[in-house]
Amino acid sequence: MVSSFHTNDLGLYLSTTLLIFLAPPIYAGVNYFILGRILGYIAYASPIHPGRVVTTFVALDTLVEILTAQGASRVSRFDKPHEQEIGVALIRAALILLLVLYCLFVGLQVWFHRRCIKAKVVSPNLRGILNVLYVSNVLILIRNAYRVVDSFLGFSGYTETHEWCIYVFEATPMLLNSYLLNIFYPAIFLPRDSKVYLSQDGKTERRGPGFKDKRSFIVTIIDPFDIVGLLQGKDNKTRFWEHESHWPVITAEEKAAASQSESYGNRRPSWDRIVDPFNITGLLMNYSNHRSASAPTA
After folding, report:
1. Could you tell me which of 32, 51, 31 has the C-alpha nearest to residue 43?
2. pTM for the full model?
3. Residue 170: CA count within 13 A, CB half-sphere
4. CA 138 to each of CA 106, 169, 293: distance values in angstroms, whole numbers, following the listed order
5. Strand pairing partners for 207?
């Protein structure tokens, strides 16, 4: 880390601390979206309304992120020990909440998986993406658990005075998670169209109306669970899978066309995803092509 060579630079220390604490939860946010997409594909097996998975966990995660940012900024105040103590307390609270929140998220996935097994709708694709998500969850939980332990050991604790800990329990799980989601990226397991769902026979795919939260953004933040909607019985009106005859069946021709589309056909080879998990080469090529296209002609 650059800040380790410039110990008197407060800006570098603060930015490093924020990146360490704020970056990994982004992976958790990715998993929220993935599970929400899976629940939407097999909505009748979802323990909660699929349309609320992302808003609920992202809203709660955002609160944790705010606590983390506040704590990290206060910890950097070396001239004010009292502020540092408050910062450490905020970080500890945020990390514990993050660990509990993610355990609840994993519990939701396990609950959903068990319901799919009971309904006998666990297809090879579903099993594949759930296994990828399980591995990703374990890697994130390892990191979160390490951070909780590290926060309580303090600045003079073993994890802070031995550099190998951050490489083994922080950097390695996040790097492996990057490789995992690039090599086994979710798009190869799910339909391209988010409105496509699996019928209750476990075989037929249909195109439904999808899940759209028509509430304003502010309302979704204030009431991510849509308690008002639950009390008003709006869930019963959005159970489109209970009226399957209204929705068209996805034909074999449509599936074949989707598999040959740009989203699925132009995949990077496995070696490329391993060497360059963030697809930096692709970003640079797109940027170069954009510059070339926008350059004025003579």
Report:
1. 51
2. 0.75
3. 20
4. 9, 12, 44
5. 196
Identify residue 131 by its one-letter amino acid code.
N
Q: What is residue 50's DSSP assignment?
A: G
Amino acid of residue 43: A
H-assigned helices in the chain: 10-22, 24-41, 53-75, 81-119, 124-153, 158-161, 164-166, 172-183, 217-222, 227-231, 234-237, 252-259, 262-265, 270-275, 280-294
d(CA 177, CA 135): 8
CB of 72 within 8 A of CB of 17? Answer: yes
SS3 42: coil
CB 140, CB 177: distance < 8 Å: yes
Residue 49 and residue 215: Cα distance in Å, rounded?
A: 15
**pLDDT in tens for each of the 298 residues of the chain?**
565 666 666 677 767 766 776 667 788 888 998 998 898 888 888 887 777 788 788 888 888 888 887 887 787 676 777 788 888 888 889 889 989 999 999 999 999 999 999 988 888 888 999 999 999 999 999 999 998 898 888 778 898 888 899 889 988 998 899 889 888 888 788 887 777 888 877 778 888 777 666 677 677 667 766 677 767 666 555 677 677 667 777 766 666 665 555 444 445 666 666 666 656 666 566 545 555 555 554 4
Q: What are phi and psi of 197, to 5 degrees?
A: -135, 160
Query: What does residue 198 show for φ and ψ, rounded to 5 degrees?
Result: -90, 125
